[in-house]
Design goal:
Structural class of chain A: alpha/beta
Oligomer: homodimer
Strand content of chain A: 15-25%
EC number (chains A, B): 1.2.1.41
Strand order of the largest sheet of chain A: 10-9-11-8-7-12-13
Family (chains A, B): Belongs to the gamma-glutamyl phosphate reductase family.
Shape of chain A: globular
CATH class of the largest domain in chain A: Alpha Beta
Pathway (chains A, B): Amino-acid biosynthesis; L-proline biosynthesis; L-glutamate 5-semialdehyde from L-glutamate: step 2/2
Radius of gyration of chain A: 24 Å
Pfam families (chains A, B): Aldedh
Largest interface: A-B, 70 and 70 residues
Helix content of chain A: 40-55%
CATH superfamily of the largest domain in chain A: Aldehyde Dehydrogenase, Chain A, domain 1
CATH architecture of the largest domain in chain A: 3-Layer(aba) Sandwich
Main location (chains A, B): cytoplasm
CATH topology of the largest domain in chain A: Aldehyde Dehydrogenase, Chain A, domain 1
Largest sheet of chain A: 7 strands, parallel
Distance between the termini of chain A: 47 Å
Number of strands of chain A: 16
Chain lengths: ~425, ~425
């Protein structure tokens, strides 16, 4: 195994032990200084970012990707404000969630503790560096950040500045570490760094997530893919359904909580689909409809099997007419990636059945799927959206970066 | 990939969907019938078990292992009673643990749902079959059981009987499935059955757990190893410390919540160690002491570095004298497997520091580590003891076999 990852892992583990014992006030003070130090070094960050942008242009990177890479005064300000928001959140560590007395008269409490060392493998956007580092720090976890090569210089500078703040606070700089080697080797080694990593969180496209899932021996929290649906029930208010579908599809189609497929009850399809097509005219959304839906639409193509399975992340909407709520639920449970699903209905019974029978991280009645988000859920921040069932499911905030330990008060009990 | 595991996986996934929708009363009724059906078929179970025992003797299996394999009328009765206890536990599924209103006026509730399909790879003891199957069933999960070859016929018969009960209740028999091929291939395929398994829980020795950890691409809950300590502080009551050490070491040394190393403060060692050695005389416990401890003991050997790292699971106790609470905590955090750790002390401050600074699933003041157990913790039953930090840490009961989903009530909200 590469020496670099082992060295980083060992340092992080020691740093995690120290970080787990910090008081909330110390952590918050340090976060506020990190935010100020970022702002005060805006010029250094922009200079490092220029190096990344220059390299990206040389490599013929596309404009949207260049835009995601680019830092500006305002974006750096937003990153600093993001850190301040994390400082303002309640500290999850030390909270005893429940405590009870057992038959043996032991008092047992379940207390929140840090996970330990969190690894994050992420792609282009540099703001993930400060978001993830501040969330891990506040939740008492050491973090090892392994970003993509596109944002290498920006990420490196951001971590150096945060480490400088740690140093100024007499704290171990290994509390926030950066992998300064973006070769595939370091990613692969992180996936098998069982002696040092307590969890690995991949943040990026489906390819990265699949690669981590299939190669990691350390515990992983899978994030990301959303093949989501809105089902417009026969008892829906058409205007509400129209607004929700447009919002869920067209407000920001590149994100994981946008929808890919619309299901419409056959009784309402003749009225609803023409209305929707008219409203969608001002957005560049291409429609791919099944044969029934096609009869109510002017400018739609015919959907094929592959469309029901695809997370387009684009201005494309697949549309299917269903004969019943059962058919809608069956379609969703078969094709969805179990991220976010919504029904639009005024029927009490149909709404309750949808909530009970649809298997997904977030199931909605009468709202856009775009709300599946740590900040919108009220968690204050988000480290990602889990699409697995273990540990955390759905948007993950500070609390989901913790584990627990049982603290047990006895007075001499032994087991019979 | 082997056709068998894919077929089982697919069937289990479909069965899991049905099982997730069963009402509590249906599940309990079915569990009570399973218990009765086991008792009513005691003779068939004993006959199958005889086949395993005969094979084991032929293969020269050791007496303790034969004893773990052997079923009797009483053991079958205990298995049936275990199922009845699971039926009597509250159903975790459907519980909404918290619900809140967001800034956007969405009502969001976090509701307990089954994990889906649980895989269990386990070794010799046939009672794991009925324990695991009943816990998974009650928590709404389909289960795929892959036992060891030693208990093949017993396990197969137990699953057949439980499936017969499912059939009598017009339920899908794939809710409880048995892998009737104990080759290494089926275990390896289960570890990579990502399309169908939501979690894999290995139950057995360190070798099995390591193998699963290093090869699985499905999410795993690691169970098991306990390299545990009792630290006797200078402010300990000697009688209490003596009772706790003897209980934690000698009551049942083969289990994961027994201790392997005793740490004693140097101020109290001259008085405590001779007392302990005398009390231990009636147990066949071999002592391996560091050089300081050795001076207070008559019949101890010298401990070597390897002893601090070893989970003996036997009548062996390593003993080390420490100069301070700090040294004790440092030793524990360095060598322990983070399972169960206990301090014996009358000092308020030392007890609190131990609870805060020792990193383990269960940390005790003034009690034996032997209480780390789902039943003793009040969970009513136990599927295993997790030694990882993700998802569940410490004893796992019904609740730890669940995931959650967010159910969200809106009235037309779209995201700005």
């Amino acid at each position: 195994m590469n020496n670099l990852m082992n060295v980083l892992g060992k340092q992080s583990k020691e740093a995690a032990r120290q970080l787990s014992q910090l008081e909330t006030a110390q952590k918050n003070e340090c976060l506020l200084q990190m935010a100020a130090d970022l702002e005060n070094n805006t010029q250094s960050i922009l200079t490092a970012n220029q190096q990344d942008l220059k390299q990206a242009r040389k490599n013929g990177v596309t404009d949207p990707l260049i835009d995601r890479l680019r830092l500006t005064d305002i974006r750096i300000q937003e990153m600093a404000d993001g850190i301040r928001q994390v400082a303002a959140l309640p500290d999850p560590i030390g909270v005893v969630e429940k405590m009870w007395r057992t038959e043996d008269q032991l008092m047992i409490g379940q207390q929140r503790v840090p996970l330990g060392v969190v690894g994050i493998i992420f792609e282009s956007r540099p703001n993930v560096t400060t978001d993830a580092a501040s969330l891990c720090f506040k939740s008492g976890n050491a973090v090892i950040l392994r970003g993509g090569k596109e944002a290498f210089y920006s990420n490196q500078m951001l971590v150096e500045l945060m480490q400088q703040t740690l140093r100024n606070n007499q704290l171990n700089t290994a509390m926030i570490q950066f992998v300064n080697d973006t070769s595939r080797d370091t990613a692969n080694e992180m996936m098998r760094l069982n002696d040092y990593l307590d969890v690995l969180i991949p943040r990026g496209g489906a390819g990265l997530i699949q690669q981590v899932k299939m190669n990691a021996t350390v515990p992983v929290i899978e994030t990301g893919t959303g093949n989501n649906h809105v089902y417009v029930d026969q008892a829906a208010q058409l205007d509400m359904a129209n607004d929700i579908v447009i919002n869920a599809k067209a407000q920001r189609p590149s994100v994981c909580n946008a929808i890919e497929t619309l299901l419409v009850h056959e009784d309402i399809a003749p009225e609803f689909l023409p209305l929707l097509e008219e409203s969608l005219a001002s957005y560049p959304v291409a429609l791919r409809a099944d044969s029934k839906a096609l009869t109510y639409l002017k400018k739609a193509g015919l959907a094929v099997e592959e469309d029901w399975k695809t997370e387009f992340l684009d201005y494309i909407l697949a549309i299917k007419v269903v004969a019943s709520l059962d058919e809608a639920i069956e379609h969703i449970n078969h094709y969805s990636s179990k991220h976010s699903e919504s029904i639009v209905t005024d029927s009490y019974q149909n709404g309750q059945r949808f909530l009970k029978e649809v298997d997904a991280a977030a199931v909605y009645i009468n709202a856009s799927t775009r709300f599946t988000d740590g900040v919108k859920f009220g968690f204050g921040a988000e480290i990602g959206i889990s699409t697995q069932k273990l540990h955390a499911r759905g948007p993950m905030g500070l609390e989901h970066l913790t584990s627990s330990k049982y603290i047990i008060y006895g007075d001499g009990q032994i087991r019979e």
